[in-house]
Amino acid sequence: MDRLTLPRPDDWHLHxxxxxxxxxxxxxxxxxxxxxxxxxxxxxxxxxxxxxRAYRERIMAVTxxxxxxxxxxxxxxxxxxxxxxxxxxxxxxxxxxxYPAGATTNSxxxxxxxxxxxxxxxxxAEAGIPxxxxxxxxxxxxxxxxxxxxxxxxxxxxxxxxxxxxxxxMEHITTSDAVAYVETAPTDLGATITTHHLVIxxxxxxxxxxxxHYYCLPVAKRETHRKxxxxxxxxxxxxxxxxxxxxxxxxxxxxxxxxxxxxxTATNTLSILAQVxxxxxALDRLEGFISRHGPAFYGLPVNTGTLTLQxxxxxxxxxxxxxxxxxxxxxFDPGFPLxxxxx
Length: 343
Ligand code: DOR
Ligand code: ZN
What we know:
The chain contains eleven helices and 13 strands. By secondary structure, the protein is of the alpha/beta class. It has a single domain, classed as Alpha-Beta Barrel (TIM Barrel), CATH 3.20.20. Strands 2-3-4-5-6-7-8-9 form an eight-stranded parallel β-sheet. Helix 1 (19-30) packs across helix 2 (49-63) and helix 3 runs parallel beside helix 4. The radius of gyration is 19 Å and the shape is globular.
């Protein structure tokens, strides 16, 4: 098989930022993806329907064309359940994002005490609004490599038990624990998997010198976990779908004494995924992962447009960095040649 035509894919977890960065990088996603779930962790965060609507307009002013940004609200301890319901019913938002306070970039306004958002979660369960979780605890006593597993046990599982009917996406899963948890859950729980977590493990970040462009959160774990993610991605199980978590930062913020978390994969994500799936002998499962499972979870139609990937004899070339008005942004380097070109 050297040519693959699929329904146009969607990205179910994407950071587009705002202003000069948005202008510089949005086209990298809009070129290939039909829709994307847009993360609300701007400064200040997107907490009201009016802010989400205005942000959607700023995105569409940059992307033009057919790209559809699916907006999210940033859950805080003071989020008004009525605001969430109204924004959803007015078609402004598709989901709500839970950041445990302090877990990652711009999460300071996130949730410290889940009991404070009970009312919102109940409304979401009733209205069928998905909750997207950054699945890491922030307890300083928990090792950074254990924070996802601890989140499942201490936060996610109790929350799902006390809020029956709540649809949850565990975002950017990085562990075999998360894969196992999702596999045993009913279909009201889904999980996104990023491109970079299918490619790198923690050695790639740390062996032979620290590689800031491989640092993201949740941080990549050991190789056994990467293999579990790959197994889930190629399994055909509809609960697993692509959310790139492509998260641009200017190089000066990554290559720093306190470097920001985030891998920017929008530019070469589809070439990488085709290569990874082919190398795993699972090219026939790519369509489900990037084009079908996400819409099924969100109750949306599969895109009618198509995208073609062509196998090439010489490696695909792509820019090492994208220049933006906010500074250059390094494109994720998978560390191996890519032989699938998006036509
Ligand atoms: O690596 C990450 N970068 N993880 C996140 O959760 C946030 C994101 C960002 O906004 O840069
Ligand atoms: Zn993210």
